[in-house]
């Protein structure tokens, strides 16, 4: 079971500043201001400030609705002092209903005793001092009672702490209210964390940020936010991210298209150079041993550049002409035929292949 934090404070509220109090005892009194606040005497010391907002007010209002007895307004905190001094603690007034307004928490049905009303109307008392509990964050968690006082700067806590704690044990909130108050506070902290809000973010800030998330989910899904499985949505996103990470291209294993094309161009140039050199070697050898005639040189060179294998296959099957692999004139220029002007070697080839020397001579002249 959750328990209230054992921090207790007495705050002073100026009755003269309450609306509608001129010359009479007010029925509606402001007990605790809204927002973060401190006492005139420098309290609190355990936290930076006391805090009251609509969430904390809802906890106190629920407690007031649930309790069977009214809250007491006494004189000078005698309700607490009587535990030590044994003197009576007469009531100055009573109230049962709390109400949250924009500027703080109010008691809205105060009933004053005749004596207290007379003192208030004669301005014998000028201040209210509510006694409340608060947690380690400064959030007000419970209202114990209220006192009429004329000493607003007095720190009542040092001498009242033991008595107040004893009283707290007898008038503490019912277990269900205690648990709900702690659950609400914990829920608010969790929402602040989930929405990435600072620790001091107000309930209004949290609600505004949460509404932005709801609107985003509704717009993204095309449905009401209540039908969105937020946990399932986040899980699906994580799975998709993991899948994309697994299929991401590793720059160390792949090169860009531009780099690949540049390499291909370099390979093509080198291939052309190597292939061109091999074609020239084949042509030189084939022309020297008669497998190619001079008139076939250009044709063979073109074939070698386009299809080296085809040229190699042709030359492998072409017969060598012995007459062309050695000169018949022992290195001397052959004598030309007086009729055709062809040398002896060319005439020999014409004779071998059955060509007309005159036609060959005419073709060579063209």
Task: Give a brief description.
The protein is an alpha+beta fold. The chain is 48% helix and 15% strand.
Would you kindly provide a written description of the structure presented here, covering whatever features stand out?
The chain is α+β, with helices and mostly antiparallel strands. The chain has 13 helices and twelve strands. Helix content is 48%, strand content 15%. Strands 1, 2, 6, 7, 10, 11 and 12 form a seven-stranded mixed beta sheet that branches. A hairpin with a 5-residue loop joins strand 11 and strand 12. The protein is rod-shaped, with a radius of gyration of 54 Å.
Q: Which term fits the overall shape? A: rod-shaped
The SSE string, one letter per element, is: EEEEEHEHEEEEHEEHHHHHHHHHH
Mean pLDDT: 75
Q: Which structural category do the helix and sheet elements fall into?
A: alpha+beta
From the alpha carbons, calculate the radius of gyration and give it in angstroms: 54 Å
List the total number of helices: 13
Give a count of the beta strands, DSSP E runs of length 2 or more: 12
Percent range for β-strand residues: 15-25%
Please report the distance between the alpha carbons of the first and last residues: 119 Å
Identify low-pLDDT runs.
1-5, 153-159
Task: Note the main sheet.
Answer: 7 strands, mixed
- Residues in helix, %: 40-55%
